[in-house]
Amino acid sequence: MTPPPHRDAGAGRPISRKSLLKAAVAAGAAVPLLSSGTRALARDSAGQGRPLSVTPACDDGDGPTHDQIEGPYFKPDSPLRTNLVDAGMPGTALTVSGYVFGRHCSPLAGVLLDFWQADDAGSYDMAGYTLRGHQFTDARGAFSLTTIVPGLYPGRTRHLHVKAQAPGGPVLTSQLYFPGEPRNATDALFDAALLMNVRGAGNGKEGTFDFVLDVDGTPGPGDPTDPPTDPPSGAWAPGRSYAVGDRVGYQGGTYRCVQAHTSMAGWEPPHVSALWRRE
Predict the structure, then answer these.
(1) pTM of this prediction exceeds 0.85
(2) Are the CB atoms for 179 and 208 separated by under 8 Å?
(3) pLDDT over 90 percentage in the chain
(4) CA 31 – CA 11 distance, rounded (Å)
(5) Residue 68 shares a structural domain with residue 187
(6) How many domains does the chain have?
(7) Fewer CB near the last or first residue (10 Å), C or N of the chain?
(8) Is residue 267 part of a domain?
């Protein structure tokens, strides 16, 4: 018989897995570890013959707009880059790397990962794109981000924001957290399932995390959203934000976008089959 869910006797509501994990962290309990002493990564479970648990979404309460899960500090159209650090930027150096898998343990190539975060002082750049950028996983499903450790601001523990989307798949909006932070126990949004492995690396830090998206496995080259969205314009042009399903014309042909991106010279539709499919 399936045991009944844990319930909050005072409120009469089921206690969520997230609440249980947070309570465990607050009480000093350990989250799952490998024999090496690091937190388990999805890649360590990929060969065990069972589906992976998907990376949980994390509601973002950075401001009063709680219904917007990306929070008030998200901005679309971030630049394509893996290094978010500008010359002379203060802060502790941080690299974050890992892999993106589907539920059935297949690494996913071409996954869009859009990162944004606070600076060393705990502020977000809303005028420009400082500490914001997107990238795509490589053929192995791997990604790597160069940035700084985000600063603290009232009500929140340290965290990185991310949106992840396989071609044609749903968008995961989530956050990554740092182990050992005192505010992890008091942040209402903290989720221990989203803790990175973090270790010292010279004067900086290195973090690792594997995402598991809610898709069956390795997506095809397209799987565009249906129905497709209306294209921003009839003709392809550099410097524009295209979403999955957008249609454009280029040199007499019609192309459908199969991976969200900001266009640039050299990425014309006939040249990048990972981004455009001819119709």
Answers:
(1) no
(2) no
(3) 44
(4) 26
(5) yes
(6) 2
(7) N
(8) yes
The reply to whether 56 and 156 lie within a common domain is yes
Query: What CA–CA distance (Å, rounded) separates 140 from 138?
Result: 5
225 and 207 within one domain:
no
Residue 234 inside a domain? The answer is yes
What tokens does 16 get?
């969520």
For residue 276, give the CATH number of its domain. 2.10.10.20
Average pLDDT across the chain, whole number: 79
Q: Which whole number is the average pLDDT over 102-117?
A: 92
200 phi, psi to nearest 5 deg: -70, 145
Alpha-carbon distances, residue 13 vs 16, 23, 61 (angstroms): 9, 16, 21
Domain housing 271: 221-279
Question: Which token pair is 253?
Answer: 């042909």
DSSP state letters, 162-208:
EEEE-TTSPEEEEEEE-TT-GGGGT-TT--GGGBPEEEEETTEEEEE
Q: Residue 85: exposed, middle, or buried by beta-carbon count in 10 A (0-12, 13-18, 19+)?
A: middle
Let me know if 262 is exposed, middle or buried by CB neighbors in 10 A (0-12, 13-18, 19+). Answer: middle
- Asked if residue 39 and residue 147 are part of one domain, the reply reads yes
Number of Cβ atoms within 10 Å of the Cβ of 98? 23
- The residue written with tokens 């500008």 in the block is 86
17-57 pLDDT, tens digit each: 445 555 554 555 555 554 344 567 988 877 677 889 999 98
Q: Are residues 167 and 243 in the same domain?
A: no
Q: Which of 109, 108, 175, 122 is nearest to 150 (CA)?
A: 122
Whether residues 195 and 229 fall in one domain: no
